[in-house]
Design brief:
The protein is an alpha/beta fold. Helices cover about 30% and strands about 15% of the residues.
Length: about 400
């Protein structure tokens, strides 16, 4: 029987194996070096940022997303690109396309491609990401997906021109599963929301539980509506409080990607149990409490430029734009024919405030990266956890490994 590299996992405290950590000795930050004096020469490399602006909330919402979510990270990245690019006489420009309701992302992308744009960063849903990638597959283009975590984009629906800076759902749930394994919280109560995205997250969690030997002892759908966003008391609150009665579990995992009800569950379970998943203890790319590996400097720069805290989508868009700038700096050219194949070679790496330089997996174009496990006010851990090992890199214990992939790049 063939054993997948992702199954070559062992906890140091169980097996006595020296810990393999995400924080390898060579710490890599994303902080650009001081720029030399500007020099003449070269032309702008245009990178398109296609996104849908966040609509303003209809009423007061303490957790409302900022209108410049995502694109603010791209703007900071272009400034970083121009800082590093001055060493090689390279300059960059960001072509922002804020899609109006009903506006076609494919048409916008084709219009930019007709003007010579080769690099595209998207913070769009999976269907639109796939449509843009297919629309531009005949030409030379690099599509950087910063907003769609769907595993199918790294699997059956992968594309040769599509790269991913946002972790897949599998990477996120694997990070949580590793932490639960480390803490020996092996029994899971899975609560699944009504949307397709909620069900996709639940499916990823089930796969992660199987991968790391955890047991889902109970699974229930959430049928009480958006209680986390409800104003005032409702008759369903009492019903929701007994929702967890009579169950045997160590941790409740909520699948609520819309953020409608997941925040209601903590501290309302009948038995005192921690809550994780899309709310509570979460796995993500970025958090305001991340300060190590030069992240504090990035947090401060972002806040000075925007007047707010950096969010995960901002970081993922930043990583997308910086991918182009870093590759062009390393190769001393922004030629798409050079950059696109270079991204998946061992020689390319992206310093990105994670303690290690990040690389793209050649089999599905997913950016390898440590995933931080956080609660609302503090960072809890970093995955891959100590003791989880892999024949290439501990980072490949997160997400779909090469032997299991269904991706056939085309």
């Amino acid at each position: 029987m063939r054993v997948s590299p992702s199954l070559l996992l062992a906890l140091a405290f169980l097996a006595g194996i020296p810990a393999a950590q995400a924080q390898e000795p060579k710490a890599a930050t994303g902080e650009p070096p001081p720029a030399p004096p500007p020099q003449a020469g070269g032309g702008d490399t245009h990178i398109a940022m296609i996104y849908r602006p966040v609509p303003a909330p209809s009423s007061y919402d303490a957790e409302a997303e900022p209108e410049d979510l995502g694109v603010a990270g791209a703007r900071m990245a272009v400034k970083d690109n121009n800082t590093t690019g001055r060493f090689t006489k390279q300059t960059y420009a960001l072509d922002e396309v804020a899609l109006e309701p009903g506006q076609d992302a494919v048409a916008a992308a084709k219009d930019l491609a007709a003007k010579g744009v080769k690099y595209f960063a998207l913070t769009l849903p999976a269907e639109e990401v796939l449509a843009v990638a297919d629309a531009l597959k005949e030409g030379d283009a690099v599509i950087l997906n910063a907003g769609a975590p769907d595993d199918r984009l790294r699997g059956a629906d992968c594309r040769a021109n599509l790269f991913h800076t946002i972790p897949s759902r599998a990477m996120q749930t694997d990070a949580l599963a590793q932490y639960m394994t480390l803490m020996r919280w092996r029994k899971i109560f899975l609560i699944v929301g009504p949307t397709e995205r909620d069900k996709a997250y639940a499916d990823a969690l089930k796969n992660s539980a199987k991968k790391f030997g955890l047991k889902i002892t109970a699974e229930k759908p959430w049928t009480f509506g958006p209680l986390a966003k409800a104003r005032g008391d409702t008759p369903t609150r009492a019903e929701a409080m007994v929702f967890t009665r009579g169950l045997d579990y160590d941790m409740a995992v909520v699948a609520d990607e819309e953020g409608d009800w997941g925040d209601y569950v903590p501290f309302r379970t009948v038995d005192p149990r921690p809550v994780a998943g899309t709310q509570g203890l979460i796995a993500t790319t970025w958090h305001p409490t991340l300060e190590t590996w030069g992240a504090a400097q990035a947090q401060n720069r972002f806040r000075r430029q925007t007047g707010r805290l950096m969010r995960p989508l901002d970081y993922q868009a930043w990583a997308a734009i910086r991918t182009v700038g870093e590759a062009a700096t390393q190769k001393k050219t922004a030629d798409i024919g050079v950059i696109r194949p270079y991204l998946t070679t061992p020689e390319f790496s992206l310093p990105a405030y994670k303690g290690v330089s990040l690389t793209y997996r050649p089999w599905d174009h997913q950016l390898r990266q440590p995933i931080i496990v956080v609660q609302p006010k503090a960072m809890v851990s970093v995955a891959p956890e100590q003791g989880f090992i892999h024949q290439r890199t501990p980072l490949d214990t997160l997400g779909t490994d090469e032997p299991e992939t269904t991706c056939k790049l085309k």
